[in-house]
Design goal:
The structure holds two protein chains of two kinds. Chain A is mostly beta strands. Chain A has strands spanning about 5, 10-15, 20-25, 30-40, 40-50, 55, 65, 75-80, 85-95, 105, 110. In chain A, the strands form two sheets. In chain A, strands 2, 4, 5, 6, 9, 10 and 11 form a seven-stranded mixed beta sheet that branches. In chain B, the strands form two sheets. A five-stranded antiparallel beta sheet of chain B has the order 1-3-8-7-6, with no helix packed on it. A five-stranded mixed beta sheet of chain B has the order 2-10-9-4-5, with no helix packed on it. The chains are: A mainly beta, B mainly beta.
């Protein structure tokens, strides 16, 4: 089944404890992206990647890191999480080109206390 | 800064009625337009895609596009309670460069279909 897999689905952590949210897609998509979604603010892009070893900042990159060492994987790293990073996170992937929308992962609900 | 404007709602319609969801966008270079449906706490799900001016129909859904007016809409006929969700409008940019793969999402319109 074609899908984007995120793990974990739920995570509660403490301020300052490094964490990684994994994202993997099995559709050979070039493009991958991370979003956070907060009430009233909609989907805001954190980072995106056009291909292996090619990443760029989105609208809200502060406090986050990413890497794209393999085409299928695009992990999101929070080196020192803070309570303002409590949010619902989505990974998305797509083929490049006008006719392709994004396929989203199931989401990760992160709470930082 | 690319902007996508949607009425946040909630838009309430009775079961069986037509729900009309509207979206305006600022980037005149936008070529393709996507509509996503998002149930509360779930991930966005692609439901419609349109890139030509005019109407595109898929089952109970019709997308309408007017590039000159920078306006795209989604009509849901015979609305069902299961259609109750937030609908996100997402234009895609120009054919080349960064626009060829970036979607800009509106904040969404919350639709409530009353039985």
């Amino acid at each position: 089944e074609a899908q984007v897999t995120q793990n974990p689905r739920y995570l509660i952590t403490v301020t300052g404890k490094k964490l990684t949210v994994t994202c993997s897609q099995n559709m050979n998509h070039e493009y991958m992206s991370w979003y956070r979604q907060d009430p009233g603010l909609g989907l805001r892009q954190i980072y995106y990647s056009m291909n292996v070893e090619v990443t760029d900042k989105g609208d809200v990159p502060e406090g986050y890191k990413v890497s794209r060492k393999e085409k299928r994987n695009f992990p999101l790293i929070l080196e020192s999480p803070s309570p303002n990073q409590t949010s619902l996170y989505f990974c998305a992937s797509s083929l490049l080109g006008q006719t392709y929308g994004y396929t989203f992962g199931s989401g990760t609900r992160l709470t930082v206390v | 800064q690319k902007e996508v404007e949607q009425n946040s709602g909630p838009l309430s319609v009775p079961e069986g009625a037509i729900a009309s969801l509207n979206c305006t966008y600022s980037d005149r270079g936008s070529q393709s337009f996507f509509w996503y449906r998002q149930y509360s706490g779930k991930s966005p799900e692609l439901i419609m895609f349109i890139y030509s001016n005019g109407d595109k129909e898929d089952g109970r859904f019709t997308a309408q596009l007017n590039k000159a007016s920078q306006y795209v809409s989604l009509l849901i006929r015979d609305s069902q309670p299961s259609d109750s969700a937030t609908y996100l409008c997402a234009p895609k940019g120009a054919y080349s460069g960064a626009g060829s793969y970036q979607l800009t999402f509106g904040k969404g319109t919350k639709l409530s279909v009353i039985p």
